[in-house]
């Protein structure tokens, strides 16, 4: 199995299945596509009739594109890994939150692009404020969810919904934003994952080769 990913520092969509598979101990080979620096992703997409976007998961002859479709494939293929929780009500909530992450939150995406290796500060717009308020609301929904097992992640044990929100941990942390105490506890658990530290190490090693200035919003505090 091969996972097509982009830059570790910037590619928020790549991070989602990558961290999900790493945390669950699913072995895969990584294929790197530096899509702002060469044409390899366009060539791959033309060959496989897929969008010129990462992530994509190659399983034998089949290529699965889009982060959410990859999560569903992993859930079906590795049922013992609990990518989605067993309780139906909690699973539905997790799927709603993952779908919302997939389709919304435009303001924080564009104004606070993922940039794992730098602490930066921006002027927080009212649109980003609204996103932060919505995140706090989502975290409260999970906190109050009936049948939520104990654990530091959204549905107790780490799962697909945590992976879908993984980049928001970097955005909130690295732009010094505030969501809620429940979000902060989750963010610390996400940051402490050995797999997340491996991702960060990868992002740091790219610093000399791949710098995308248009992802560097606001003022640099610390690298
Ligand atoms: N809906 C897609 C979004 C994927 C996406 O936008 N990926 C970005 C990288 S984070 C990309 O491949 N961009 C290619 C480009 O801009 O040329 C998913 O969930 O996987």
List keywords for this structure.
single chain, 223 residues, alpha+beta, Glutaredoxin, Glutathione S-transferase Yfyf (Class Pi), Chain A, domain 2, 2 domains, 4-stranded mixed beta sheet, two-stranded antiparallel ribbon, 6 strands, 50% helix, 10% strand, binds glutathione
Strand ordering within the main sheet: 2-1-3-4
Largest sheet: 4 strands, mixed
CATH class of the largest domain: Mainly Alpha
C-alpha end-to-end distance:
34 Å
Q: Which range best describes the helical content: under 10%, 10-25%, 25-40%, 40-55%, 55-70% or over 70%?
A: 40-55%
User: Would you count the extended β strands for me?
Assistant: 6
CATH architecture of the largest domain: Up-down Bundle
What letter string, H or E per element, gives the SSE order? EHEHEEHHHEHHHHE
Shape: globular
Q: How many domain modules?
A: 2
Structural class based on helices, strands and sheet pairing? alpha+beta
Strand content: 5-15%
Instruction: Report the mean per-residue pLDDT as an integer.
Output: 97
Radius of gyration: 17 Å
Bound molecules: glutathione
Low-pLDDT residue spans: none
Task: Supply the number of helical segments.
Answer: 9
CATH topology of the largest domain: Glutathione S-transferase Yfyf (Class Pi), Chain A, domain 2
Oligomerization status of the protein chains: single chain
């Amino acid at each position: 199995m091969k996972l097509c990913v982009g830059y570790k520092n910037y590619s928020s969509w790549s991070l989602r299945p990558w961290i999900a598979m790493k945390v669950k101990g699913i072995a895969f080979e990584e294929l790197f596509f530096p899509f702002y620096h060469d044409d390899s992703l366009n060539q791959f997409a033309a060959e496989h009739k897929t969008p010129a976007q990462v992530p994509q998961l190659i399983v034998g002859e089949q290529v699965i594109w889009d982060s959410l479709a990859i999560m569903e494939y992993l859930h079906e293929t590795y049922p013992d890994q609990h990518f989605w929780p067993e309780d139906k009500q909690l699973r539905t909530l997790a799927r709603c939150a993952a779908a919302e992450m997939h389709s919304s939150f435009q303001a924080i995406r564009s104004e606070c692009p993922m940039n794992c290796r730098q602490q930066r500060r921006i002027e927080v717009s009212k649109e980003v404020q609204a996103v932060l308020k919505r995140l706090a609301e989502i975290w409260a929904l999970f906190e109050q969810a009936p049948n939520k097992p104990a654990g530091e992640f959204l549905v107790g044990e780490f799962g697909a919904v945590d992976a879908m929100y993984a980049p928001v941990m970097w955005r909130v942390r690295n732009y010094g934003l505030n969501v809620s105490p429940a979000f902060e506890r989750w963010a610390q658990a996400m940051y402490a994952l050995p797999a997340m530290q491996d991702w960060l190490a990868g992002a740091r090693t790219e610093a000399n080769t791949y710098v995308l200035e248009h992802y560097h919003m606001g003022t640099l505090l610390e690298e």
